[in-house]
Amino acid sequence: MQEQYGLRSDDRVLQKTSFGFDVSVWEFFWPLMTGTALVMARPGGERESEYLAELIRQREVTTLHFVPSMLQVFLREADLRKCRGLRRVICSGEALSLKVQQEFLQRLTAELYNLYGPTEAAIDVTSWACKQTEDGKNSSDW
């Protein structure tokens, strides 16, 4: 994760994934290995998009993970402009639809990455950056 996405000392990673899921491993250890701040969401907070938006704003979170279905719920929040410190959002765990990608790219200035990997083999084995082209269409860099 560090080689690919390069956390910096001023980054702040949100830990909100249950310990039973593989993503929680990088949410915990990636910031700890790089000296980056780790922001802990309250128990159950991962299901509350309004709480998450406020936490991201208040604690100046720069990096977080969403499953695409929760990202879709999060994108319904009225004032995502307040999350202006957000630099990167990583999605995995489900298929990331083109519709959710487009909405993300229209509403937020952060980078969006879609990762995939079978838990039995590795947490993530493929990734791509979701980008909007000059003509407003989405593209993906593998």
What value does the average pLDDT take?
Answer: 85
Structural class label: alpha/beta
Count structural domains.
Answer: 1
How much of the sequence lies in strands comes to: 15-25%
Largest sheet: 5 strands, mixed
> Over the alpha carbons, how many angstroms does the gyration radius reach?
14 Å
CATH architect. name: 3-Layer(aba) Sandwich
Strand order of the largest sheet: 3-4-5-6-7
Our count of helices gives 5
Low-confidence stretches: none
Give the end-to-end Cα distance, rounded to a whole number of Å.
15 Å
Into which percent range does the helicity of residues fall?
25-40%
In CATH, the topology is named Rossmann fold
Describe the structure.
The chain has 142 residues and is an alpha/beta fold. The protein has one domain: Rossmann fold (3-Layer(aba) Sandwich), CATH 3.40.50. The chain is built from 5 helices and 7 strands; from the N terminus they run αβαβαβαβαβββ. It has helices spanning 2-5, 23-34, 49-58, 68-74, 98-107, and strands at residues 12-15, 37-40, 63-66, 88-91, 111-116, 126-132, 138-141. The longest helix has 12 residues, at 23-34. The radius of gyration is 14 Å and the shape is globular.
